[in-house]
Write a structure and sequence with these properties.
The protein has 372 residues and is mainly α. The protein has helices at 2-24, 42-60, 65-79, 88-98, 105-126, 130-139, 142-146, 150-168, 171-182, 194-197, 204-219, 221-232, 251-267, 276-294, 301-309, 312-321, 326-350, 365-371; strands at 31-33, 36-38. A two-stranded antiparallel sheet has the order 1-2. The radius of gyration is 22 Å and the shape is globular.
Length: 372
């Protein structure tokens, strides 16, 4: 657990320092070396440390459930000229890496580098509070979900970059980004309707009607589930029986959405709806909450919701900003941190999801042998 806490503290600390220097607009003095003037910028240095912490931990990890070994196996299958069920983007990246090395661990370095480079670029462009958005990536669980699922993480971050084309009204560029994301994870196709849905200016009454509709659908979900399995997940027939029947109401998903529900109820009405970017991100959060809470019966729902969940790292600081009293805002944010910390502790420490603990890195050969 210590490596994860170290990364969180490091990333948030240097993000706060970046925000401070960004506000103050302070730059280092120029140092003259020979005839070359080097002007180190405090902001870029802080950003680099935050990025390195978040990039290196998932890149050095070994053995996070089945996905880690699947990626290694696919990498070597591609190297040996075999076929792989992975999307074309994954295969191309593998082939490019294999021009230089046969070490499969490099694959994790490359994918995580691309993902977090996109993440920091987007947060700088979108967020009203950079360090809160960085911390929110951990709180809403995307950082931990992305460790064993690096293909979809890159797909998520590409879609995150594409949000700018939603609020700018550039449909075809958004489609290009979706196509690029699909090259790494086919589930990105679900984002096409985002362009039309997230741009709309809805009243709360509309979302109430949609919530009631989703509740009614969940009451007769088994026939729909049969259709979904037969159409989109035929490989589950007879193999993954856990997906063939409607799951009971997911209390964990509801509790995980509860802080977002509270923030939306308190501050959604104060968000400037004439600002298209604010509207898009807050709408994404509302849809995430409704689907996460009421569509618990959909197979592998978390993969679909991940493309909405990433918007929460922007909407959380945006909603908090609507609180005029700084002390109240800080209190709410601390409660938010404590609540999500407990939820994440239960999921990854108590329940052991994604096999992230104990953390085993590539330099710990004894633990690597025990994992193998």
């Amino acid at each position: 657990m210590t490596p994860y806490m170290t990364v969180i503290v490091t990333a948030v600390l240097f993000s706060c320092l970046w925000q401070y220097f960004e506000t103050r607009k302070q730059l280092e003095k120029a140092y003259i070396i020979g005839h070359t003037a080097i002007t180190p910028h405090r902001r870029q240095i802080c950003l680099a440390f935050a990025f390195l912490a978040m990039w290196l931990l998932p890149s050095l990890i070994v053995g996070t459930g089945g996905d880690y070994w699947n990626y290694r196996q696919m990498f070597y299958e591609i190297e040996n000229g075999g076929t792989s069920y992975a999307e074309i983007g994954f295969r191309v990246v593998c082939q490019m890496i294999q021009l230089f090395t046969s070490n499969a661990q490099v694959l994790f370095f490359v994918f995580n580098f691309l993902s977090y480079a996109l993440f920091f670029k987007c947060v700088k462009d979108y967020s009203v509070c950079f360090p809160v958005s960085v911390l929110s990536l951990f709180l809403v669980g995307i950082y931990f979900i992305g460790i064993p699922q690096m293909r979809q993480l890159l797909s998520i971050m590409l879609l995150f970059y594409g949000y700018r084309y939603i609020y700018r009204g550039n449909f075809w560029r958004f489609c290009i980004v979706v196509a690029a994301a699909m090259c790494f994870h086919i589930t990105a196709i679900i984002a096409i309707p985002f362009y039309f849905i997230l741009r709309q200016r809805f009243k709360f009454s509309y979302f109430f009607v949609m919530a009631v509709t989703l509740i009614m659908i969940s009451m007769v979900a088994q026939p729909l589930l049969d259709i979904l399995i037969a159409t989109f997940y035929p490989r589950y027939m007879g193999t993954n029986t856990m997906y063939l029947f409607v799951k009971p109401f997911d209390i964990y998903a509801f509790l995980f959405s509860l802080p977002l529900i509270v923030l939306l109820v308190m501050y959604y009405g104060r968000v400037e709806q004439t600002d298209m970017a604010s509207r898009v991100f807050t709408n994404a959060t509302i849809w995430y909450v409704m689907l996460n809470t009421l569509c618990f019966w959909v197979p592998e729902l978390f993969r679909i919701l991940a493309y909405l969940n990433i918007a929460n790292v922007i909407s959380i600081p945006l909603l908090l900003k609507q609180e005029p009293k700084s002390k109240v805002r800080l209190f709410i944010f601390l409660i938010l941190i404590i609540f999500y910390a407990v939820m994440l502790y239960y999921r990854y420490v108590v329940h052991g999801s994604n096999h992230l603990l104990p953390y085993v890195h590539v330099f710990n050969w004894k633990q690597m042998l025990s994992v193998n």
